[in-house]
Recover the amino acids of this structure.
């Protein structure tokens, strides 16, 4: 393709709102342009890389036995009312009315549509399992779209669905998809982890997120330094590792801590570590007030609290509540003499503690030599805290490290949630009606593209992996006004194309510096520069990533490029 | 692909709302399913044929030098306000508000978005011409969606745009696109015509529609029986072919026609042909009342009237208007003694008429022996009527025939409409700022698919052209319970796939009759049936379209199929 006739326009400056590399570089290099907040168009270069990612996804889906289809973006409200999500999905679901005032959703996901299609088509166990997928623009009205393609309001997604006759069969489909996802992200050259995740809004149970490791990721992953264990930090259980103390319990004392506001200040004042203080936080769990006690150096994980109570809503109590129940504000709470109306529960790590400190439910005072069990009653000990770096890995192998991740894929075991609500049944081999079991599997295709750029860039621009780059070769004619340069470049352009090599040809009448800068920004793996030695038939070949370069003869070029790509 | 695991479900009955073959067959054969009125999902079989059409379009666009990109479906209202179409596009444009109450359109077409992208990227004549395209779902809230994929509210479209520095350059881009379109529809096996068309809502001037000839088409095409002339019937000019009459003018007479309401009744009553009467119809052209006179057997074409007056609005006058201006109602209007406030204009065919009949502007009376020019003044003779079958072709070659057509493509010379409204300028080779000249080029991809089915079907189902069919071979195992049949079919399935042949394998445990009926409905060009002679290694091979069949040995199959497809 000749660059002079391509819709591409590079920028010297980063867009004002672009905080991260992929956003900056994809806009600056002319791959994408913003149309509205969180809404992007893909210019020709961008569309080419998008298509390469898409084809990898398509090949792996086909290999997994899923069939491609294409559902509509317009979805009648009635389907979402059947599943119940019309009311629960909230403001993220974009909605509109047609000319007859009929309500529609713009597809944020397609569980409802596919379930309605399958329930009308598939009636027998003989036709299960079934796996389908589509690659299609999705719409979600993010409250705060940001980071370019990472969190947009219209984005390209691959969504797949499995329909199974049993959970055993679902597990098999899930495994196939899990493998396909690993293949996709591996082929995209990404450093990623499959992590145990929360099922959130989708209503599923067993679920993994595929996370690309990146400092700009919005999620924190807890992973083992020796095994392949990885989980969203919110989901990682903490092994109960407490061993009894050999210290003798001393007598409870009440001490004045007049100016000490934080736990650290109290610990410093009393001359002990943060781990020797108790942290007490009051929650309202549905209608029950709960005082959660952890070690001072631990953080309460309210998802674990919610799961312990099997609750719908967990909120922090208000300071009004603590005053009326405990007679004090947040800073002086403690479990000693807590009233019966409040549940006192504590993290496993609290149980073995001896002679620790806690708030005295009285401003300006703390108890010291507090001993759980002796000085206060604990209704239940449980895993209530966030895992920390250095904790033993929950799978028993190695220790936990943290990393940030960009979620590029998600596999869910949905179970019967949609099939039950929408009445998707089949006749089993006994002729008995059964509800289908479903799985749902998503890949953010445009987000994957951005994640690749996050992992493949340097100070001069993008450094695409060989199989994702928009073109294989960037051919530069340094001074096309010179006849011998133009002629050699034109010849090479023809020869490369004839050899089936994807080539972008910078035939513009621009300064050499502009061309080199644009080429580095684009990130095409191999640059071929036709310059001063054109009259000898010699050109410069340079690798974008390594910076290695060599002068080659015109007749060596094709072989060189093909060999290089075959080795990737 | 194994049919037992595919999301497909054939129907015995036509859907109640399906009036035409493509709608009936695509639904019955399980290619598409309706999600809401005018909104369809493509099941796996449908997606495969859609993709084949898409790939043909993509290849021809690339060959024409257009670059693929992908714009967003969400388009901010501001862009449509800039072009002026936010107000003029009307109820067909689907609109919505985001969570911040910002207004958006769902892309019905993308002139605004592409113009905004190009004006921000391209500043110099050196970067023109530029051609881009995308293949993407479009949204139009049709008042009356019907005919399945032919007139839907969400549909797959290829839209392309050219940006040129001059009209000469636009003509070149237009020619390239015209050729690409002819290639696309030829490769799709369609019997089509490129016809001169009205530019309608798009604001363009020179424009052609690509029409697939079909009885169910919503447009009428006037075409020459000997040349390649073809035009939308509304657009075809009529050659002035009138020759002077040798009849002697007789004296004007007023005759009573008490019970004759229609022109035919008057003609019969007075004993002459319809062509010997004058038809007089009153229009309001902007603010001017105009009495248009044509021969009794001709129909007024109000587009021609509008163009003659270069008017914005042409309406029929009300009967109140004719009473107040002419002293009579619609049925008795005539040009004799028309008041000066009314323009009398007449079709060319009226000029040479001698001794004809017209209304007397008095209920129950007509004039006979009327002679234009002598008995009434004609302000202007012009081409004012619809062309008729049998008229000479406007290009001077042959005579006109009518056909109905399905519009599958449309090429427009937009000129400077969008570029002017949206300020898309460039610097020319003199450094002077100029407004860009644009072209716009659309193909209804999903509609093309439906048009193919309209031309390729028989009483048993679809009969796909070889390069559009979802699979190349439909392999049937008639009785998979019999080991030798299952074994041979499984072997053939492997062998066909290994040879790179696309094969759908009906491995279901269904009756032979069901399998044959489904196979005919699907329309895959070659059917291979493994039945009773499986033990001898012999299978039946049948061509879907011709019905030709032969028994072949297992080892002859691959060669037979490859030879057949190579000959297509």
């Amino acid at each position: 393709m000749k660059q002079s006739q391509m819709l591409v326009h590079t920028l010297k400056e980063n867009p004002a709102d672009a905080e991260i590399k992929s956003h900056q570089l994809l806009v600056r290099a002319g791959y994408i342009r913003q149309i509205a907040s969180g809404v992007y168009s893909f210019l020709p270069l961008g569309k080419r890389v998008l298509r390469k990612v898409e084809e990898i996804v398509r090949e792996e889906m086909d290999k997994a036995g899923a069939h491609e289809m294409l559902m509509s973006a317009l979805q009648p409200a009635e389907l979402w009312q059947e599943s119940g999500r019309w009311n629960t999905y909230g403001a993220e679901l974009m909605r509109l009315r047609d000319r007859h005032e009929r309500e529609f959703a713009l597809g944020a996901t397609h569980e409802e549509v596919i379930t309605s299609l399958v329930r009308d088509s598939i009636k027998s166990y003989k036709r299960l399992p079934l796996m389908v997928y589509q690659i299609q623009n999705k719409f979600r009205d993010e409250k705060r779209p940001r980071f370019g393609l990472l969190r947009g309001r219209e984005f390209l997604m691959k969504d797949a669905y499995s329909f199974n006759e049993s959970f055993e069969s679902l597990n098999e489909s899930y495994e196939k998809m899990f493998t396909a996802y690993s293949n996709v992200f591996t082929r995209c050259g990404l450093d990623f982890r499959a992590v145990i995740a929360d099922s959130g809004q989708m209503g599923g149970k067993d679920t993994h997120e595929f996370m690309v490791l990146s400092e700009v990721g919005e999620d924190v992953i807890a992973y083992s330094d020796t095994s392949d264990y990885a989980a969203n930090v919110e989901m990682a259980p903490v092994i109960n590792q407490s061993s009894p103390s050999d210290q003798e319990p001393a007598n409870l004392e009440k001490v004045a801590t007049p100016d000490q506001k934080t736990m650290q200040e109290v610990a410093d004042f009393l001359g002990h570590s943060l781990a020797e203080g108790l942290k007490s936080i009051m929650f309202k769990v549905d209608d029950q007030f709960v005082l959660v006690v952890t070690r001072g150096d631990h953080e309460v994980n309210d998802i674990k609290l919610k799961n312990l109570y099997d609750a719908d809503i967990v909120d922090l109590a208000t300071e009004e509540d603590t005053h009326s129940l405990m007679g004090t504000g947040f800073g002086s709470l403690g479990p000693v003499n807590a009233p019966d109306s409040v549940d006192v529960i504590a993290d496993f790590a609290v149980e073995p503690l001896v002679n620790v400190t806690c708030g005295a439910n009285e401003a300006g005072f703390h108890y010291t030599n507090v001993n759980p069990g002796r000085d206060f009653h604990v209704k239940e000990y449980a895993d209530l805290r966030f895992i920390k770096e250095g904790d033993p890995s929950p799978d028993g192998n190695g220790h936990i490290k943290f990393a940030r991740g960009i979620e590029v894929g998600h596999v869910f075991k949905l179970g019967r949630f949609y099939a039950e609500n929408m009445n998707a049944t089949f006749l089993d081999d006994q002729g008995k009606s059964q509800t289908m079991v479903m799985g749902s599997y998503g890949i953010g295709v445009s987000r994957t593209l951005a994640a690749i750029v996050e992992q493949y860039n340097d100070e001069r621009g993008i450094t695409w992996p060989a199989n994702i780059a928009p073109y294989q070769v960037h051919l530069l004619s340094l001074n096309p006004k010179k006849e011998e340069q133009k002629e050699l470049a034109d010849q090479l352009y023809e020869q490369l194309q004839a050899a089936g090599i994807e080539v972008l040809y910078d035939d513009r009448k621009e300064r050499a510096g502009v061309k080199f800068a644009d080429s580095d920004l684009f990130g095409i793996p191999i640059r071929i520069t036709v310059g001063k030695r054109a009259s000898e038939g010699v050109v410069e070949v340079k690798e974008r990533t390594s910076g290695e370069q060599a002068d080659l003869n015109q007749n060596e070029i094709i072989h060189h490029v093909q060999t290089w790509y075959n080795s990737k």
Q: What stands out?
A: Residues 279 and 296 of chain B are 5 Å apart (CA to CA).
